[in-house]
Give the backbone structure.
Amino acid sequence: MKALMDYAREDDDVYFWRLDRIRRSVIDVLNTVNDFTSRGVRLHSIMDNLDPTSVQGRMQLAIMATLAEYERELINERVRAGVISAQKRGSGSGRRRWRSRSPKTGSILHASSWPRARPPSMPPKRSAGPRPPSTAT
């Protein structure tokens, strides 16, 4: 965002998908819009059709930014509540830790100490032996 603010000049047009997604808080959204408009940069919202230079457009922008911040905080609150609930149930978050005993030493091995598996999208490694003959005609 800083690079865009440095690059934008007077009489430039800047398009955003949604103006309420410019920043994370209402204050930051309004300050950013004011910074652009005070420098003569016109802001356009593709989805919202807002005009931040008019009184009605600024009011709509403030309402939308407030609702977006509320939605973001509500999601964070629900995620935190879910993590706490999972911890109380005894199920942790993230990948399950696999444990097994080493057949040689008897010590416990964790998944992080195992060799990494190849992703299914990657073909298996081939030996450095001779290549099979080409069947292209």
